[in-house]
Amino acid sequence: MRNPETLEGVGIQCQTAGRDFNGEVLGSAAGGRYDRETVRVDYYLPPLGLPAAGDHARRARTLGFDGFFTAETNHDPFLPLAVAAEAAPSLQLGTGIAVAFARSPMVVAHAAWDLAAASQGKFILGLGTQVRAHITHRFSMPWAPPGPRMREYVQALRAIWKAWQEGGPLRFKGDHYRFLLMTPFFDPGPIDHPRIPVFIAAVGPYLTRLAGEMCEGLHVHPLHTVRYLDEVTRPALQEGARRAGRHPAEVAVAAAVFVATGRTTDQIKSARRAARKQIAFYASTPAYRPVLDLHGWEIGPDLSALALRREWDAMADLVDDQILDEVAVTGPPESLGELLRERYGKRLQRIAFYGAGPGVTPGIDDDDWAGIIGAIHS
Predict the structure, then answer these.
(1) 3 state SS for 28-55
(2) What digits encode the pLDDT tens for the residues 24-35?
(3) Residue 115 forms beta bridges with which residues?
(4) How confident is the model at residue 36, as a pLDDT?
């Protein structure tokens, strides 16, 4: 296998995160060192489709959110961000995440380049590997070891962007991707903000180290605990940064956090039940099992068996209060922001609400959400 440092067409300047194409250190919007005392709060577009994106982006801006993100579930993750860039130009935009291996790096490079231009440099490209079954059976794409392939994927993106920005030849030869042709007809040319931050999603140590080594950010999976962040994620991120001669503060850590809130006891109880179901769904997947293993929660095999039988309610019953309280944050709106800041203020640079948000959570109005965001910012 080729040494990633010497892949043809990818010099060290092209693949080193936090620096531009000439090796200069970038600012925190696209790398550089992040302020560890500042937590940015991101809005995730509900799965409502393209027509809703503009109104939701404007609402997010009004409530004080810092970023507007999309996830790849039942709609394309890139298209709504073009609408949001026009509707709320002050917001940072990002995919959280787009499935990398469902697309050629060239396809993603074009989408990211256009969004970086449309947002005046406020676009963050978030990528994830997904699991083998989805890549092969849902997207009908080939599967390969995801860690080395993601490394090469990010290198390929930066080689393509470098060719477009500087006008040089495109010569990228890797084990998984080869890009050797770029004529003027297909070259979008330079843009004002070509240094596109790349965040990758990770659960295990390999991809977490990779984020520390060569990316501007890490997307932590919602199925996490403080202990997992402290004992697994942070050390792996630091190790990756050390290997590349970087400071860990050059890498932003982002996560959508399970939240259960409401105005009444019944509303909070219902929100906790919904969180149990989603936690059980994720925990039934072997790829997310390391979090359970760290805590000694031996429910994974039973969850997988129940999932095969589609017994979703029975799965939720296996997520007891101890597991729920380690994974999710529960509280009324007047204390939720403080609870989130207390748990994550020193651990995350970007936070979002999983399973909760404006217009989604019963009993919580926009003023409540503005107050929650303000408390996290304070």
Answers:
(1) HHHCCCCCCCCCEEEEECCCCCHHHHHH
(2) 334 344 445 666
(3) none
(4) 64
